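Look at one such:
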Amino acid sequence: MNFFMARSFVGEIDNKSVDFELEWQKKSELQALNIEQAYYNSMLIQSSADPDFDRQALTQRMSELQKQNRLVNIKYKKIRDKNRISRAEERREIVTVK
């Protein structure tokens, strides 16, 4: 194994570690949003008998949570894409150095 192969192997391990951490951060944020949405869903179902309950505010909050969910997915997709591009550039540099 030459120096460049060893360097790329270590880099791949670091990349997998970063990807793993990002995936868990994303899952953590999405899980928090899903828990809150499930809570509001149960409130909405239970509130059907209460005429004074503000269903409009609750559904508005639920739509905000769905929007946040999409934004979290977009945020992490951008990060993954940026990382993928920078890694490809690094690989190209390694190949051109050889």
